Amino acid sequence: MDLSLLWFLLIAVLWTGYLVLEGFDFGVGMLLRTFARDERERRVMLRTIGPVWDGNEVWLLTAGGATFAAFPELYATMFSGMYLPLFVILLALIVRICAIEWRSKIDSRRWRGRWDWAHAFGAWVPSILWGVAFANLVQGMDIELVDGNHQLTGGLLSLITPFTLLGGLVTLGLFLTHGAIFVALKTAGPIHIRAVRLAHRLAIGSGAVCLVWVVWAQVSYSGNTFSLIPAVVAALSLVGVVVATRLAREGWAFALHTVGIVGAVAFIFSSMYPYVMPSRLDPAASLSIADAAATESTLTVMSVVALIFVPIVLAYQGWTYWVFRKRVWASDIVGHEGLPPSEERPLEPAGQGAGR
């Protein structure tokens, strides 16, 4: 197989891993303020993702790094036109990290409430913007050939169309559903029962929105008939999620919803093929896989490294999920987290406490 095509497929796999795993993290974060009824339930929800959320983010770093190394022209062209949205996503992810890490430091309702709102911001914003970004890749962007180089000439507003906004709603709905199913899968007791019911309602709505977007994308923007295969897989899987959540089979629902997200990502990449960035202004200016790829030697080294280390990473992450596979009960939450507000200490200047 041509190495550039191989890495096009591998990058699709990396993005799939990120959206599947980080998807339920985002979903839990979006539901934290609205679904949980009290502090104990919020701590239950945070415990469901506590052991795994930071490992899930590694997939984003890997996908971004692989894109930079394997398709440098794609990376440069994409960032030149999507710099501000990608910066906002990065800012939201940083805020979310701070919210998760700092929430439990002080035993204060006001302190926790502020970080819960920050967590919600860090979950809602990327959930929408990732969909808008991928929808732009399917729709095509304002790319022109300037002095032989591919350049994005459209401004920020060129990224916002009815199709791309609907794409944002697709990822938002899928992540909300994924998060609700994950809470149902990882909890027990009343919160588990409510999560199953919520997941069923969300599965109906998100599945319908996803179906409309996929049909629109296939009819208007996809030049390939084989992209219908992952589209059908995704549709059947999402229908299965509705049935599974109705029967309160959250394990099956999570597996089927994962397959649905895999099918959706496969549809996105197969609809773009043989391009990595189609141009909606001039098909001749579209950035093809061959045009964007790095040198053969670079791709060869990357392939060897991936062959060695990817199985190790997968084994370690799989082991992590196995170790923390048990459900979380609200009764497991006892006591308070963090220092009392009266024991807060101001930050000391650097070096002041070094001799203590």
Give your account of this protein's structure.
The chain has 356 residues and is mainly alpha-helical. The protein has one domain. The chain has helices at 3-31, 39-49, 53-70, 72-102, 109-139, 162-186, 190-220, 228-246, 250-272, 289-292, 296-323; strands at 143-146, 149-152, 187-188, 275-277, 287-288, 328-329. The strands form three sheets. The protein has a two-stranded antiparallel sheet. Strands 3-6 form a two-stranded parallel sheet. α1 crosses α9 (250-272), α5 packs across α9 (250-272) and α6 (162-186) runs antiparallel to α7. The radius of gyration is 22 Å and the shape is globular. The mean pLDDT is 88.
Itemize the secondary structure elements and their pairings.
Elements: H1 3-31, H2 39-49, H3 53-70, H4 72-102, H5 109-139, E1 143-146, E2 149-152, H6 162-186, E3 187-188, H7 190-220, H8 228-246, H9 250-272, E4 275-277, E5 287-288, H10 289-292, H11 296-323, E6 328-329
Parallel strand pairs: 3-6
Antiparallel strand pairs: 1-2, 4-5
Helix pairs in contact: 1-3, 1-5, 1-6, 1-9, 3-4, 3-11, 4-5, 5-6, 5-9, 6-7, 6-9, 7-8, 7-9, 8-9
Portion of residues within helices: over 70%
How far from one another are the termini?
A: 62 Å
Q: What is the mean pLDDT?
A: 88
How do the strands line up in the largest sheet?
A: 1-2
Q: How many discrete domains?
A: 1
Give the ordered list of helices and strands: HHHHHEEHEHHHEEHHE
Q: Class by helix and strand content?
A: mainly alpha
* Gyration radius over CA: 22 Å
**Total helical elements:** 11
| Overall geometric form | globular
Uncertain stretches of 5 or more adjacent residues: none
- Summarize the main sheet: 2 strands, antiparallel
Strand content: under 5%
Number of strands: 6
